[in-house]
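hi! just following up on the protien thing from before. the input was this:
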Amino acid sequence: MEQLIAIIEKGQPFFNAIARNKYLKAIRDGFISVIPIIIFSSIFCLVASVPNIWGFYWPDDINNALWKCYNYSMGILAIACAATTAKHFADAQNRDLPKNNQINFISCMCAAIIGFLLLSSDTIATDAASGFNTTYLGSKGLLTAFIAAFVTGIIYKFFIKRNITVKMPEQVPPNISQTFKDIIPFSVCIAVFWVFDIVFRAAFGFCFAQGVIQVFQPLFTAADGYIGLAVIYGAMSLFWFVGVHGPSIVEPAIAAALVANMTDNLAAFQAGQHASAVLTQGAQYFVVCMGGTGATLVLVFMFCFLAKSQEMRAVGKAAIVPVCFAVNEPLLFAAPIVLNPVFFVPFVFAPIANIWILKIFIDFLGMNGFMYTLPWTVPGPIGTIMGLGFQPLAFVMLAIILVVDFALYYPFFRAYDAQKCAEEAEISQEELAAKNAEKAAKLNDAFQGKADAKSVAAGAAAEAVKADAAPAAAAEATATSDLNGKRVLVLCQGGGTSGLLANALAKAAKERGINLETAAEAYGNHVDMLPDFDLVVLAPQAASYLADLQKDCERVGNKCVACRGKQYIELSQNGDKSLAFVSEQLSK
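and the predicted 3d structure came back as:
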C-alpha cells in the first residue's frame, strides 16, 4: 500500500497541472457561477412535482406559473454558462497580458452569448412573429456554450495582445476608448461564428449544438455504466487522497452530462416514463459524496462516538458538523485521511459502492434517478430523499448505502483506532515516568534540605518564564492590533471550507476588539474582489493555484499565502493562532 501511494504521489505535480489548466478551470468556475440558476429553478420544480406523488395536482394556472419560472431559468442555462465561462476564461487570459492592455470581459461575455446563439438555435417564424428555438439553450447546449466561450477568449487575446484595435486619441474618455477597442475582436468573433454556422448547417442540415450532442452521446452513455461510474468517482477520490482536489479535474469533463441527465430524468418522469440516468448532479452531491468526497459521513460518526482514541474523538467532535454539511476537509486533514494508507481502500471504494447501489435500484428495481437539484451543503440523507422525490425506494436505498459505507470503513477505522490508542498509551507512559522522576527529585531535595544546581536552574527558569509571560502577551496583543482595518479573503474550491477559517478569524477578532474584515469565497470568483482585500489565504485543496493567485495579487498589490492541511485545520480552530498567522503574513 505504501508503494502504491508513493507512485500516486509522484504524479501529484501532473495532477496539479491538470487542475490548473485554464480551460478546465474556466469550465469549472463558469459552471459554479450558474449553480444558483440550477438550484433556484429546482425549487419551483420540487413544488410543482413532488405533491403529485401523494395524488395532489396544482390547478392549471398555478402549475403553469411554477413551470414558467423553471423554464425561464433552467431553460436558458447554457446562455448563462457561455457568458460565465467566457468571463473566467478571459480572467485567465489576462494573467498573460500587461496590466494596461487587458481583455474587456464584459465585451467577451456578450460575444460568447451571441456566438452561442448562432451555433445552437434556429429561427422560428410564424405569420404573427418570429423567435428562437430553445431546444439547445438549456442543459443540452452546455458543451456548445463552453466551445463558444473558448473561441471567443482566444480571438480576443489574439487581437488585444497584438494591439489590433481601433485606437482613439488620449483626450477621449477611457470608457469610450474601450468601446472602440472592442469593436475589432467583437466583430471578428461574431463573423467567425456566423460563417461557421452557415457552413455547418449547409453540410449537415442541423445546428452545431445538435451535432455536438450526437458526437458525445456515446461517451455519456458509457459514463453512465458501471465501469464508467467507477472510473469517474474512483478517480475523484483517488486525486483527493493524494491532496489534489479531485472534482477540479474530473467535474469539468462530466459537467454537461451531470446537468443534462437531470433534465432528461425530469422530462421522462413528467412523461410517465422511467427516469433512468444515474450520472447526475444530485447523485454526485448526495450519494457519491455523502459527507464529502470519499463518502465520509459514517466515518465522522465513528470518530466521534466509537473511537477509543482521545485524539480521534476530538477530531470527530470538531469535524462532525462540517461533514454533515458536506465540508469534510476538517476530517480529511486532521485525522488525517489524505495520504493515510489505512483509509485508502474505503475512501476510494465507498463512493463507487454508493453509485453502484443507486444504479442497481434504478436499473433493476425501477426507481427513478435524481430529478431535482439542491444545494450541495444539504446534509446527504436529506438531499438523497428530496432529490429522488421522496420515493419509498429512496429510503430503502439510503439505509443500504449507510450500512455498506459503515461496513467498508469499520475494519480500517478499528485498525487506525488501535494504532492511535497504542501511540497515546506510549505517550502516557512517558509522561507518567517523567512525573514520577520529578516527584522523586523533589522528595529527595526536601529530604536533603538543599537543592542542587540543576533544581536551582530549573527554579530560575520557571521564574523567568513567569516574568516573561506578561511582556510576551503584551507583544502578541501589539502584533494583532496591527490587524485593525485589515481585510482578509479566504479561498477554497467551493466556498465551504474557506468559511471555516474566515469565521474563526472574524470571531477571534471580535472577541479581542480588533476591526478585522473577513470573507470566504470559491477560487475563480475572486478576481474582481481582490482590490478590496489586503491578504488572500488559500485553503489546502486550492493550494495548487498559488502561482496563478500570485499573478492576480501582483496586479493589485496585495499578498497571498497557501496553507497546508493540518495547519489550516489548526488555524480554523484556534483564534489566537489564526490572528497571529494573518499578522505574520501581512508583516512580510
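The two ends are 41 Å apart (CA to CA).
Residues 449-478 have pLDDT under 50 and may be disordered.
cheers
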